[in-house]
Amino acid sequence: MEEHKKKRILYLIYSSDVKSGGGHFYTLLTLVEKMSKFIDFKILNVGLIYPLVLKNNSLPSDFIPISKGTYYNDLSKLRLSIKEFDPNVIHAFDLNSLRAARSINYKKVPIVFNKCGGVNGPKVVADAAAYICFSEENLIHIKKYKSNNSPLYLIPNRATKIISDNDRINQLKSDYSLDSKKVLLRISRFSEMHELSILQAVNLFKLIHEGDKDSCLFLIGIVQSEDVLARITAAADGFPVHIITDEYFCKDASGLIDVADIVIATGRGVMEAASLGKIIFCPVEGESLPAPLNAENFQIMSKFNFSGRTRGITVEIADIVRQIHNESDELSAFSTKMFTEQFDIEAVIPKYLDIYETAKYDRPTMRSFINYCYDMLYFFKPNINLKKA
Asked: Using CA atoms, how far apart are residues 375 and 380, in angstroms rounded to an integer?
C-alpha cells in the first residue's frame, strides 16, 4: 500500500528591523514544532535582519535579506528558494511576507495568511487562499473588507504548556530574596507599543504594595525605546520594581513565569501564563489599572487579543482587591480551564492540516490585480491614506 505523502508547507515570516522577534515568531515556532510530525516544512525569514529567536532555535530556518530599495531584485532569491522546496502551501505569518509571496507566486501555490493579532490595518485586505485570525477583532475586520471568497478561520490557540527554567528562577529567588514575597511579573519589550501595559502593571503593583509591603514587581524585556524605559523607570521610582533587560533573562523569558504569583500579560503571554494556572491581569484602554482575567470579561478580552485595545470594561479598585484577596483560587482555576479549552495548540493541529488540504489557488483576475497594486502601494508608501480601520 502506497504511503500517504506529506504536504510540503513553506512558513514565511518578515523581519523589519532590530525590533523583530515578538510573539508571532514564537507562535510560528510552536506551530511548526507540533506540525512537524505531519508535514515537511521549511521556515523562511525575509526582511532586514535574521532575528535571534529564529537564528538560535533548534528548528532549522533560512534568511533572505529583502529591502524596499531593491525589493524586486531581492525577490529573485526568494523565488529560487521556493522553487527548490516546491511547497504545496505557503503559510505567511504577517502582511509583508504575504506581499512577498504574492509577488513571486509563479507556481500558483495557495497562500494562507495568518493575522497574528495587533491592529487591524488598512481597509484594503490583501488576497489570500485562506485567512487565519487569532482574535475576533481581526476576524471581523477581514470579513468586512476582504474582496474575495476565501474562507476565514478564528483559531486563537497558539501556546503549549510552559516548561519552567528552574535554574534562572532560582537565581532570581536568590538574588532578590523572593521566598516569602508576593511576586508580580510583566514580560514585555520596552517600546511605545507596550508602554500602556507596562505602566498599568506598575500601577497595579503600587495598589497591591499598599496592602502587602512584602511584594515586588519584575519587568523583564529587551529595550527598544530608551525613552519608554526612562518613563517606566520614573513611574516605578521608590518602589521595589526590578527592571531586567539583559539577554540572559530576556531570551525565552516565558520560562520565568513560574517565579510569579500574578502575571500582567497580553496576547500570547496570557496563554503562556494560563498554562501554569497563574492569576492574570490584562491592560484595558482608557484605564490606569489592568483588569483581572475572569469568566465575566473573558469574551471581550479575547475579542481584542487581551491587548491594550480592550474596551468596554470598567476597572474598579475594590473589585481588584476583592478578587486578589478572596478569589485567587478561582482566578487561577479559570486560567487553567481556559488554557485547556481555548489556548492549547495541540487541540487545533487537525484544523491546520485541514486548512492546508483544502486551500485553493485562485487564478488572477482584474480584481485581484488591483488588490495587489493597492496592497503594494501601502507597503512602499505606508503613510498613504488607504483608510485604516
From this structure: 9
59 plus 139 within the same structural domain: yes
Q: Do the beta carbons of residue 168 and residue 249 sit within 8 Å?
A: yes
Whether 80 is covered by a domain: the verdict is yes
Say which amino acid occupies 146: K
pLDDT tens digits, one per residue of 196-209: 999 999 999 999 99
Q: What is the 3-state secondary structure (H, E, C) of 160-197?
A: CCCCCCHHHHHHHHHHHCCCCCEEEEEECCECHHHHHH
Kindly state whether residues 335 and 359 are assigned to the same domain. no
CB 68 within 8 A of CB 103: no
Q: Write phi, then psi, for 199 (nearest 5 degrees).
A: -65, -40
Q: Could you tell me if residue 281 is inside a domain? A: yes
DSSP state, 7? Answer: E
The parent domain of residue 359 ranges over 7-159+346-380
Strands 241-244 and 215-220: parallel
Q: DSSP state, 123?
A: S
The pTM of the full predicted model, rounded to 2 decimals, is 0.86
Residues 241 and 208 in one domain: yes
Dihedral sign computed on CA atoms, order 190, 170, 160, 216: negative
The verdict on residue 293 lying in a domain is yes
Can you name the residues that pair with 46 across neighbouring β-strands? 14, 64
Q: Which three cell numbers stand for residue 96?
A: 509583508
Whether residue 131 contacts residue 111, with contact meaning beta carbons closer than 8 Å, is answered with no
The pLDDT of residue 2 is 45
Q: Which of 267, 269, 266, 271 is nearest to 283 (CA)?
A: 266
Sign of the Cα pseudo-torsion (80, 86, 90, 93, in order): negative
Does residue 235 surpass a pLDDT of 80? yes
Q: 6 is written with which cell numbers?
A: 506529506
